[in-house]
User: Fold this.
Amino acid sequence: MTYDRILDEYVTFLWRMFQYDMDVFSKPWIYWILLIPAMFYFAFFMIKWCILTTPLWMPIVIIMNTIKSVIIIKSNREVIDKK
Assistant:
């Protein structure tokens, strides 16, 4: 299996999940009783999409935390060297 195929399958899966969520949000039952079902589904929606998009945002977070820690270590060394 090539990377192009994996990426294509992943994007297709995300698109299908998004279409399903929009279908659920377009149902009338979700807006009954003071929007309580909509609030619960929206909370589920946010958690679900955080998990589904983890392969996209996790590498960026790891890289940013690594850069941040390198900068902090470098600045701490400079402070220690000045003393």
About this structure: Residues 57-83 form one domain.
